[in-house]
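question for whoever is on the cluster today: can someone run the full assembly for these? two chains, 586 residues total. i dont have access anymore since they changed the login thing
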Amino acid sequence: MRITVLGTSASAPTKERGLPAVFLEYLGEGFLFDVGEGTQRQFMRFGRSFMKITHIFISHYHGDHVFGLPGLLSTMALYGRQRPIHVWVPERQVVYVERFLRALVPSLPFSVEFHPAAPGVLFSTEGYSVSAYALDHTTDCLAYVFEEAPRLKADKEKLRQYGLHGPVVGRLKAGECVDWRGKRICPEDVVYEKPGREVVYVADTRPVISNVAKGADVLIHEATFLESERQMAVEKKHSTAREAAEVAKALGAKKLILFHFSPRIDDLSLAEAEARERFPDVVAAEDGYTIEI
Amino acid sequence: MRITVLGTSASAPTKERGLPAVFLEYLGEGFLFDVGEGTQRQFMRFGRSFMKITHIFISHYHGDHVFGLPGLLSTMALYGRQRPIHVWVPERQVVYVERFLRALVPSLPFSVEFHPAAPGVLFSTEGYSVSAYALDHTTDCLAYVFEEAPRLKADKEKLRQYGLHGPVVGRLKAGECVDWRGKRICPEDVVYEKPGREVVYVADTRPVISNVAKGADVLIHEATFLESERQMAVEKKHSTAREAAEVAKALGAKKLILFHFSPRIDDLSLAEAEARERFPDVVAAEDGYTIEI
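^ ran it for u. tokens below:
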């Protein structure tokens, strides 16, 4: 599973930073969270393929999070995309996103399937689920949670103790009890459930603690302001870097990635430093920041 | 007068090249020709101020030439713009551009004044005029011609001969005859008309020769394809680099700037070389290419 933070600026780009877009690659699927203006070019700049996108999740209908959508889809068409793409948008905003897309791109050679997103599980497969929860911004805004399904693993030490090997291990993982060398062995004897990995994407918001996001392996959280501008964060319904760290701590996250910085923040080490006072494993992402988990 | 070619790619950006946008700065005014996705960031990258834009001219309503408009205007608002901005669009396409802009940006703290553009003079001031002429593309597409008014200049050598200096020179340039050291001197004795500078912007088109563009100091012309792909240029209603050079020659242009290259052209020296066989003073512009005239 690879996460690439393609754009880290808030509201407007800067010379160094593009607008919000985070790309999660997982077993042949590609999940793009937000699509600020210039996202297609950020894919190129950082050597990622936008043709691999299968789902797009829009946190909210503010320009800096969606203006890159029509160009991205047009360029996919130019490069021959035919398979459908799924676009999730907070439910009351679907009509606006569809309207602006159709105004710009009347037709595409592939299907763009819009889905209304609301708090709860959006969809799930055998391997993972994607959920949303409500944030606290100036308009409807959703956090998205990608959660891998728990996986059954055989405890290697126990397999050795029983002398188990071969297809019988698969049967145990499938839930069967087996007779093996005169003993009856059941799944609970050797099989355990390994929790799936969890990635949480939190765009524009005041700090929100949600059970849905508990225990995230990676929390990607906005940090529009520094603590010295807390008042502005409150007024504009954003978070400071320190507040993002407090959220990470409250959620029991393993790692925190800060992004969505005001263009006025030149030196990201300030954001990182004030967050680290509350939460140790934090990085203030530059464009292109990549992590494999 | 300074021209900056902000984006030089056609249809889709590449890692190195942004989408079409050319910025002409002239005596406190700023004329932007086309505004592909990412234009606001190209301004930042090349140290130009988008707050100086007074007029935007859209060649035609295709995504790669307009998708940067909503983000650009939104960012202007963020940075406190209040004065109106004028946007010229081929007349039958105004409704679409307005519609898509309003769908994305319902309100702005400054006025966006849309003007229908058609072949002929669009507007003129004492100092310059902007005209348009029809191109030959798959949809209505206009070339734009910025033409400085002719300026009256006093011939320095003749001033010296007559011993003329001071306010009397201004009176001569204003059209008065003057009595000077016992002689009657009239404007035609010392004043001549210097033609204004002319810049022509030609986006997507098959080659078109227009009298309106004759004698351009700078012709900025699309060169989507190389001559080896002439057939594609014909089918898709674009020009090859060599064809652009032939247009420059037929128009008697002084300098040719090629831009709007297919993403498949890696090596711009090929475009430049084939154009130079037809027209000597040519440059295949990289993003950020700047010329002062």
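summary bc i know u wont read the tokens: Residues 94-104 of chain A form the longest helix (11 residues). The mean pLDDT of chain A is 95.
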